[in-house]
C-alpha cells in the first residue's frame, strides 16, 4: 500500500511538473473562413519545424504545448497554401505558464494582436505597432501578388516594386525606434534583418544607419551567435573560391572533441553543409554513406551542421551518419560564411593537398555519385597520345579551365579531314542537357573551326540522360591546323554557354 501511494505521488509530481512547463495559445479571429488550417512552427536557430496544427472553427483555434529546454520558445503562426492570406507569419514568444491570446479581424496574420505577459512578446509588439499601417499595406500587396502568379511579368514586377518601397519605409521606422530602445534579443533580431538587406540588397539605402546601430552592441553581444551572424553580413569575410586553399577552423564532434579539416589532408575531402530542417540535405544522407564506403581509400566526407547544438545532436541521433559529423557551433557565421554558403545542401570538393577543386549546391538523386565519378575517377586517368595511321589520338587531354562539370573531353581524334571530340556527359538521371548547334573550336592562335556533324546527340535538341546519369557523344569539326597545340571548345559568349578552355594536344 505504501509503495502504491509513493508511486502515485511520483506520478502526480511528474504531471504537475509537466503542467508547469505548459503554455497555451488561444485564438479568436473574425473574417476568416471556418476550416482554415493554422500551422504552428517552432523556430530554432535557422530551422523551422511544424509542432502543431489546428483548424479555425467558429472563429477560434487553440494550442497547448510544453516549453523547450531553454524556457523560451520562438514560434510562428502561419496559414499556408491559402490565397486569402499573405505569405507571412505571426511571431509569438512563449514561456512556461504563459496564457497567450491572439485576436484578429481579417486575414492579415502578421499584424494579428498578441496579448501576452512574455516580455519578448511585448517588445516585439512595439515594433509591429510602430509600423502597423505599413505592415497591413504590405500584406495586402502580398495577397494580391498571390492572385497574380500567372499575370504578365510587368504587372508582377510593379507589385514587387511597391513591396520594396513599403519595406524600406518599415526599415526606416524600425531604425528610428531602435535608436531609442536598449539592445536586447528582439532588438538584435531586427538588426539581423537589416544586416541581411545590407548583404543582399545593393539598393538598400540605410547601410550607414545600420552600421551605427551595430556599434551600439557591446562586445559580449557581438560575440553571441546572432551577433556573429550580423557581423558577417555587414563585414563579409573573404570567401574562398575554386583553386584557393581551403578555409579551416576549430570543429567539434558530438563528444566535444576538436578537429580541423587539415586533419584529413592526404585524401580528397567532400564538405557537406547541411541542416536538419533542409529536406534535400536529409535525402542526400543515404547516398553520402554509399560514396564514403565506395571511396573510403581516397575520400573523407565531412558534414558541417548549421543547426543549434541541441538540434544538431538530436538530428544526428535520428540519422545514421557513419562519416565525420562536425560543427563549428557558429551556425551560419563561421565556415558557412567563409565558403559563401547561401543555400543548402552545399558541397565543396577539396584535393588531398587542401585546394578547393569544385563547389556546388543542390541535390538530386544520384548527383553525388555522378560528381565523384566525374572528379575522383578522373584522377585515375592520365593523358596519353597515340597514332593510328594518319590519325593522332589524344586520350583524356588536360584543360586549363571550364565552366561546366557536365562535360568531360574523353578523346580527341585529329585527321587531315576532321577533328572529332569525344565527350563524357554526367548529369542527373533522366534530366536533359542540350548542345548548341553554334558550338565551335577556337585554336590557340584564334582560328575558328565549325561544327560539321554530331553522333549520339542532336545539337539544339533536348538529350535526356539515362538511369546511370552518364552518356557519351562525339562532335566532328573542321580539321585543326597541324601547328595547333591547344584549343577551346565554346558554345558562345553567354554565361550559360559551355566553355572548355585550353584543351591540350601535347603533354
From TrEMBL:
<dbReference type="InterPro" id="IPR050553">
    <property type="entry name" value="Thioredoxin_ResA/DsbE_sf"/>
</dbReference>
<dbReference type="Pfam" id="PF00578">
    <property type="entry name" value="AhpC-TSA"/>
</dbReference>
<keyword id="KW-0201">Cytochrome c-type biogenesis</keyword>
<keyword id="KW-0676">Redox-active center</keyword>
<keyword id="KW-1015">Disulfide bond</keyword>
<feature type="domain" description="Thioredoxin">
    <location>
        <begin position="240"/>
        <end position="381"/>
    </location>
</feature>
<dbReference type="InterPro" id="IPR000866">
    <property type="entry name" value="AhpC/TSA"/>
</dbReference>
<feature type="signal peptide">
    <location>
        <begin position="1"/>
        <end position="19"/>
    </location>
</feature>
<dbReference type="InterPro" id="IPR013766">
    <property type="entry name" value="Thioredoxin_domain"/>
</dbReference>
<dbReference type="InterPro" id="IPR036249">
    <property type="entry name" value="Thioredoxin-like_sf"/>
</dbReference>
<protein>
    <submittedName>
        <fullName>TlpA disulfide reductase family protein</fullName>
    </submittedName>
</protein>
<keyword id="KW-0732">Signal</keyword>
